[in-house]
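Bit of a strange request maybe. I'm writing a small parser for C-alpha cell strings and I need a real example to test against, not something I typed by hand. Could someone generate the C-alpha cells for this chain?
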Amino acid sequence: MGYRKFFAGDTVLVDEDKSPTHGGHTGRVVGILITPNNISYRVGCECGKNTTLAAAQMDLVSTPHDDPDPPTIHEMRMAHFLRRVGVEPQPDSLKQQVKKCMAACRRWRDHTITSQRFGLDGSDGKTLQEIGDEYGITRARVQQIEARVLRTIRHAMEGVSK
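Reply from user aminoacidic:
Good idea to test on real output. This should exercise your parser:
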C-alpha cells in the first residue's frame, strides 16, 4: 500500500478495524497535525466528536479539491516550518522562503539540526533523540538549539518585513 495523504475538507471513512470508537463513521478532515516524524489528521466525525487519526486508519470517500498538483509531504513540512517562524508560506516560493529564513542560521550545526528536525533536507524529520544521539548531546540541548534558532529566524524575519 502506498503512502496516502488527505487534505482539509476531504470526506473520509474511518476503518472499523483500526479505530474502535469511530470505526465505520464518516467524517471531514478539519486539520492536519505535522510533527517531524509523523503526520496525523484531525477529523470531525459524524458522531459529533473530533478525533486524531493516522492516514492508515482512513479511506478517502470524496474530496472538494480539483488541484491536479497537490502539495508533497516535503512542501507541507516546509510550510509548517515557515509558520513556526512566523512567515506566511507562499506555495509558489516555498524553497526560496525557507532559504531566506535559514540564512539567519550562522552556525553550521544550528543549520543542520534545524534542517534535520523539520525535514527541510528532503528526508523525514528526525526526533530530538535521534539528533541528540548523532551529535552526542541530550534531547533537551537539541530542543534548546531548536528554540534559539527559531527565535533568531523570527527576529531576522521581523527586520526584513519592516
